[in-house]
Amino acid sequence: MNEDKAARYHRLRRRTSLLEHALATIALLLLLVTGWSAAIRDWATAAAGTSTLLAAAIYVLFIALLAEALQLPLAFYQGVVLERRYELSTQATSRWWVERLKGLLVGLPLLVLAAVVVWTLVRWSPEHWWYLAAACLAGTLVLLAHLAPVWLLPLFSRCEPLQRPALSQRLVTLAERAGTQVLGVFEWQVSDRTRKANAALAGIGRTRRILLSDTLLAEHSDDEVEVIVAHELAHHVHHDIWRAMAFESALILLGFYLADWALAVAVGHFSLTAKFDVAALPLLVLTGGAVSLAFLPLVNAVSRIHERRADRYALDLTGNTAAFTSAMKRLSAQNLAEERPSRWVEMFFYRHPPIADRLDAAHAWDLARDTRAR
After folding, report:
1. Structure pTM?
2. Can you list the residues of the chain whose pLDDT is less than 50?
C-alpha cells in the first residue's frame, strides 16, 4: 500500500497547501492595513478614466495577477517537483506551463466577472447585496455543473467515446439499474499528465456522462471499473451533488452576510470610503476564507458520510466485494493514498474516508451478507 511513501508525499502536499493559504492571508492583510489596496484602487481609477466599472475590473485583474505571481512557485513545486519526485507525473514541464496559462486565461475572466457583479450589487443595494450576490453565485454553481463537462473539461482534457463496446454497454446497463440516465461512457485522456487514476459521473441531466481515465482503464479489470462507477452513480442516486451545492450556497450566504458586517465596520479605516469601495475586496475574501476554514471539518465530515454511503450502494448494486476490495487497493497504490492518516488530518483534509476504513467497511458488509444468507 506504499504507506511510508504515501505518508511523506501527502505530508509535503499538506505543508505546501498550508503555506500557500498562509501567504495568501498575509498578502490580503498587508494590502488592507498598509493602504496598498486603496493605492491600487486609485491607480485603477486613474487608468479607467470616467468608467467606475472598468476601474473595478482593472483593480480585480491586478489583484488576481498579483495572487497568481505569489502562488506560482508553490504551485510549480506541488504540481511538478513533488509529482515527479514521487513518480506520479508524466507531464513535460512545458506542458505544465501551458496548462497553467490556459487555466489562467479561462479563470481570470470568470473571476473578474464574478467580482464585478458582486461589487455592482454592493453599489446598487448596500443593504441587501449579500443575499442577492449569494443567489447569483448559487445559480452559477448549478450552471457550471451543467456546462463544465461540455465546455470546460474539453479545454483541458481530451474525452472520446469509450472504444470497448462490452464494457461501455455494461456500464450503461448499470446506470439504468441505478435509475440514472447517462449520455454515454467516455475515455478521459490523462496519461500524458499523470499516472493517477480517476473516474467520475460528470454533469447533470442531459449532460451527465461517465468518465473513465485511460490510466484507470489500463490498470483495472472490468469488474473493478464497474464497482467504481457504481460508487459514482450512488452520488447521483442520493442527490449528493445537489446537497453539496445547497450546503455550499448556504456557506456563501453566511460568508457574504458576515462580509457585509465587516465592510460596514471597516468604512473609514484602511482608506476605505464606502461599502462598495472596490479596495475592500481583500476584506471580503478574508471573511469568506474564515467562514470556509471554520466549516471545513463539517464539510469534510458530511462528504465522508456521503462517500461511505456511496461505497455501501456500490456493494449493494454489484454484490462484488472482491472487486471493490481489489479496486480500492489498486487505486490506493496507483494514486499513492494514505492508508491511515491521523484524526486531525482526516478532519481538515479528507473528503473521502481513509482507504483502511473503506476496506474495513467492505469486509463488514461482506460478513453481514453472509450472516443474512444463513
Report:
1. 0.92
2. 1-2
